[in-house]
Amino acid sequence: MTTAAIRGAAAPRCRGGPGETGPAETGPARPGRPGPGPARKGRSLRRQMTSHAYTERDVGEFFDQTTATYLSFWDSEGVLHTGYFADADDDDYRGAAERTSDILAAAAGIDAASYVLDVGCGCGNFLFQLADRFGCRGEGLDLSIERIKFAQRRLAGARQQRPPGIGFRHGSATQLPYRPGTFSHVVSQDALFLVPDKPRSHAEIHRVLRPGGVFACSDFLQPRKEIGERARKHVYDRVRWSSGYSLAGYRAALEQAGFEIIVARNLEGHIRQTYRVLGKTARARAGTTPDAAARDWMLAFAESCVEIQAAIDEGEFGWGIFVARKHGSVTPSDQASTR
């Protein structure tokens, strides 16, 4: 799907939501919600604070502690991001999640010559997909050491068949361990919202991109300044999320970091549909599993999905896709060094 298609794509008219998540306080995942479009009149473009200021350590420890639970109870491959659904009747979460990855890759213009950094790569699925489809090289970085270990184990198995040209490391989006101008593309799926110092992460992404390089991401949004107790519990505090941008605020923050905005798209309907589908799936699995602990986890997850949809309806949680370019032109030496 091209950037023009993203600009014009309509969100499905449905009750659902994107993302992967678990029950409040115990489940593993990231909650998401789409932005309401350009900031409503009178809304601040600055990040809006919720009740707590979580640190990177809080975030990393949370995902380290919940990774094993998520992998055992929900998805053994670690698929953890919001889906882009074909229509309002689409219940295929896995297909929708893969479609999100396809949209970002197409919008970014990734091809065989690309050198890609996935910031907040989680269990590495997006980078594996890019390497398999395009034959590009890449690096994945995440704040959770447990998710990086999972990706590295999978990579070790893949290397027995064919070296994929990718690697994974533990690290922070605010201190990227790469030289300036290293990558032709930086991507991220539903991860940067968790970074406490968002402007610094944007500056770091800008730094490691080559002139003319492209940053493409999906991310969760905070459309409203005021956040009720339901959203705080089931969306923000549950995954150690301190603050967020509105759609317009996100765009302004990227521009302040030096990016030229190509796409800034509100996809609220898709995040709602993601949580509708995930809640339905969790209830169905709870009815068939013989494991009491797994059943309790899935039922709690299904309840959280209902509360998250309510937060989306109240404008307290959103989701959007952004594509931006670093100013400058790619030189022949830059192109050669990606190969």
CATH superfamily: Vaccinia Virus protein VP39
Question: Which sequence of strands runs across the widest sheet?
Answer: 4-3-2-5-6-9-8
Class based on secondary structure composition and strand pairing: alpha/beta
Discrete helix count: 11
Write down the Rg.
19 Å
Number of domains: 1
Q: What is the general shape?
A: globular
CATH architecture label name: 3-Layer(aba) Sandwich
Mean pLDDT: 84
Low-confidence stretches: 8-50, 335-339
Q: What portion of residues belong to β-strands?
A: 15-25%
Total beta strand runs: 9
Which CATH C-level class is it?
Alpha Beta
The residue fraction in helices comes out at 40-55%
The helix/strand order is HEHHEHEHEEHEHEHEHHEH
N/C terminus separation: 25 Å
The major β-sheet equals: 7 strands, mixed
Topology:
Layout: H1 3-8, E1 48-49, H2 56-73, H3 93-108, E2 115-119, H4 125-134, E3 137-142, H5 145-158, E4 166-170, E5 183-189, H6 198-208, E6 209-221, H7 229-236, E7 243-244, H8 247-256, E8 259-266, H9 268-286, H10 292-313, E9 318-326, H11 332-337
Parallel strand pairs: 2-3, 2-5, 3-4, 5-6
Antiparallel strand pairs: 1-7, 6-9, 8-9
